């Protein structure tokens, strides 16, 4: 069987036991199907080539924007105002194709656009959000620095007031989309604490260089940024962003999407393993007929189903306005960790073929290791939950 045929066979087998669609209402299902069409018809045919060639295919952006997926959870300014559960279902379908494309939608919508929508002035929202929703302008979110992404309170990038302007100096690392972005949301220390600034990337002193040598997220862009005396007017400051509450609230939007997205990568790995288990014959019968293989498949299904149910539960809470941020850490920590375990088990079912690009499993596994690191490592989310349980902070 071809890989597409294996996926189809695995999808049929999986749907006979558990399907995400049954958990969604009609509107949520419509959004899911939009994203699934993009993932299967637009992204999937080229993703292996792009991963191999370390190429971000930005010509796909208009198709994604045309489906309303950019900033879809934001209301107004050309955005759809979709529910959190709808957005989550979209993230799942995009990451089923590749984590890099869910990351693109996340950086654009959950980070850059959310920062403007939450903390920007009316003028800033009108200037940027409609064009970002159509994909005309790409945004990036410049928070992480070279000396420690897990400790943003220690950021070294500084913004100094100079008359009616601000002058920003510093560096950022692992900033998604920065080299193709038209606007960067830059977080910097000031005399009044951390503040956010909108920096057009054409501003003198701003430079972004893609990070090379990546073994994960090869079909997407992450960059080093240098801000060398970047001068912007005070009108580019996000007026309602004060302290780390601003960037953290945006990060929580992105982490929420990861809770769903990781299960998309897990689903693809499970579908491929199921298809292969039914197709490959060893010792006279399909490998799916052996007890050890069935045990692997059952364990994979168990963790996938639990992860999706957790994602839906968090989505329902988010839509109701009752979601505790600690629960986002539960979702991110559990679902990424279990998605990696599912990918590893799928690779073992595929045998030696599992390490080739003929199958998407190793690509998903590598990408998930990156997802495990960004938006809070396993260790950071464990400490978040430990603090919630004990009332004692153990970060230092």
TrEMBL record:
GO biological process, any? fatty acid beta-oxidation using acyl-CoA dehydrogenase
Asked whether the keyword Transit peptide is assigned, the reply is yes
Q: Where is the Acyl-CoA dehydrogenase/oxidase C-terminal domain?
A: 242-389
What keywords is this UniProt entry annotated with?
FAD, Flavoprotein, Oxidoreductase, Transit peptide
- Top-level EC class: oxidoreductase
**Can you give the residue ranges of the Acyl-CoA dehydrogenase/oxidase N-terminal domain?**
26-136
Q: Which residues form the Acyl-CoA oxidase/dehydrogenase middle domain?
A: 140-230
Record GO terms (molecular function): fatty-acyl-CoA binding; flavin adenine dinucleotide binding; glutaryl-CoA dehydrogenase activity
Q: Identify the SUPFAM superfamilies for this entry.
A: Acyl-CoA dehydrogenase C-terminal domain-like (SSF47203), Acyl-CoA dehydrogenase NM domain-like (SSF56645)
Q: Does the keyword Cell wall biogenesis/degradation apply?
A: no
Q: Which Gene3D superfamilies match?
A: Acyl-CoA dehydrogenase/oxidase, N-terminal domain, Butyryl-CoA Dehydrogenase, subunit A, domain 2, Butyryl-CoA Dehydrogenase, subunit A, domain 3
| The protein's annotated pathway | Amino-acid metabolism; lysine degradation; Amino-acid metabolism; tryptophan metabolism
**Catalytic activity annotated for this protein?**
glutaryl-CoA + oxidized [electron-transfer flavoprotein] + 2 H(+) = (2E)-butenoyl-CoA + reduced [electron-transfer flavoprotein] + CO2
Q: What is its EC number?
A: 1.3.8.6
Q: Which Pfam families match?
A: Acyl-CoA_dh_1, Acyl-CoA_dh_M, Acyl-CoA_dh_N
Which family would the database say this protein is a member of?
Answer: Belongs to the acyl-CoA dehydrogenase family.
Q: What is this protein called?
A: glutaryl-CoA dehydrogenase (ETF)
* Organism listed in the record: Naasia lichenicola
């Amino acid at each position: 069987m071809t890989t597409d045929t294996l996926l189809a066979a695995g999808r049929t087998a999986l749907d006979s036991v558990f399907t995400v669609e049954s958990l969604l209402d009609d509107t949520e299902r419509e959004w899911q199907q939009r994203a699934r069409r993009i993932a299967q018809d637009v992204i999937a045919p080229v993703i292996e080539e792009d991963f191999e060639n370390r190429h971000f295919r930005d010509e796909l952006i208009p198709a994604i924007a045309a489906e309303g997926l950019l900033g879809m959870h934001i209301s107004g300014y050309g955005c759809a105002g979709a529910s959190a559960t709808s957005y989550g279902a979209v993230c799942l379908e995009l990451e089923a194709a590749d984590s890099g494309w869910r990351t693109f939608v996340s950086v654009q919508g959950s980070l850059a656009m959310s920062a403007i929508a939450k903390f920007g002035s009316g003028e800033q929202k009108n200037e940027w959000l409609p064009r970002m929703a159509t994909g005309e302008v790409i945004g990036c979110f410049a928070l992480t620095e070279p000396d420690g992404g897990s400790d943003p309170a220690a950021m070294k990038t500084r913004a100094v007031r100079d008359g009616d302007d601000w002058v920003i100096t510093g560096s950022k690392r692992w900033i998604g989309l920065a080299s193709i972005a038209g606007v960067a949301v830059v977080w910097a220390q000031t005399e009044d604490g951390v503040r956010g600034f909108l920096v057009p990337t054409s501003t003198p002193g701003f430079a972004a260089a893609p990070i090379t040598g990546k073994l994960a997220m090869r079909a997407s862009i992450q960059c080093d940024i240098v801000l060398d005396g970047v001068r912007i007017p005070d009108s580019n400051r996000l007026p309602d962003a004060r302290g780390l509450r601003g960037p953290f609230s945006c990060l929580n939007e992105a982490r929420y999407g990861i809770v769903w997205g990781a299960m998309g990568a897990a689903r693809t790995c499970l579908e491929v393993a199921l298809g292969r288990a039914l197709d490959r014959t060893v010792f006279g019968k399909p490998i799916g007929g052996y007890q050890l293989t069935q045990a692997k498949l059952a364990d994979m299904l168990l963790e996938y189903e639990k992860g999706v149910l957790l994602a839906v539960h968090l989505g329902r809470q988010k839509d109701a306005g009752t979601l505790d941020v600690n629960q986002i850490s539960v979702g991110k920590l559990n679902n990424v960790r279990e998605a990696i375990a599912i990918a590893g088990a799928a690779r073992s079912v595929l045998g030696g073929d599992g390490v080739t690009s003929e199958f998407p499993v190793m690509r998903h596994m590598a990408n998930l290791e990156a997802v495990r690191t960004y938006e809070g490592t396993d260790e950071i989310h464990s400490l978040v939950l430990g603090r919630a349980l004990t009332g004692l902070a153990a970060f230092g």
